[in-house]
Design goal:
The structure is a single chain. The protein is of the alpha+beta class and about 150 residues long. The protein has 2 domains: about 10-45, no CATH class; about 50-150. The protein is about 20% helix and about 40% strand. The chain has helices spanning about 10-30, 35-45, 55-60, and strands spanning about 65-70, 75-85, 95-105, 115-120, 125-140, 140-150. It has a 6-stranded antiparallel beta barrel. About 15% of the residues are buried.
Amino acid sequence: MSAELVSGVSRRRFLQALGLATGGAAALLLRPGAPLYESLVGLFRRRRLAAAELNRELLAPLEGDTLAVATSEGTSLSLRVEQVTPLEAYRSPGADGEVFSVVMSGDEAVTLGQDTYDFEHGGIGSFPMFMVPVGLPGRGRQLYEAVFNRIR
C-alpha cells in the first residue's frame, strides 16, 4: 500500500500542513487581547489566597480599586477600597507583627452584616476577609472595615 493519499499528497506532507494550520489557528485565537487568550490567562492568574497571606503591603495598592464580594445568597456586589491604614498605635508594646485596617464603601441600598465574605480582585485573586459595617458617610455609601491584628 502506498503512503500517498488519494490526492497525491503524502501522509507526511498532510500532517505537516495540518500542524501548520493548527498552529496558525492557535496563534490567532491565543494572541493577547483575543477573548480566548484573556479567559485562559485569567484562569491562571487568579488564585485563592489564605487569610494569613493578606497583609498591608498586598492590600495597600488596592486603594481606589473595586472588590467583588460574594454574598451568602449567591449574589455579588462591589465594594471600593477607600483606605488601607497602619494602626501602629494599637500594637502591643514589644510585639512583632502588623496592625492595619481596610476601609471599603458600597451602595447603601445593600448593607452587608458582620461576617467573613469571599472577596475577589482581578490582580491578586480571591480571598476570605472578615468585615463589619461601620456607618453611613452620606452620599449614598455604606462603609465597612476589616481590621488585621497579627502578632508573630
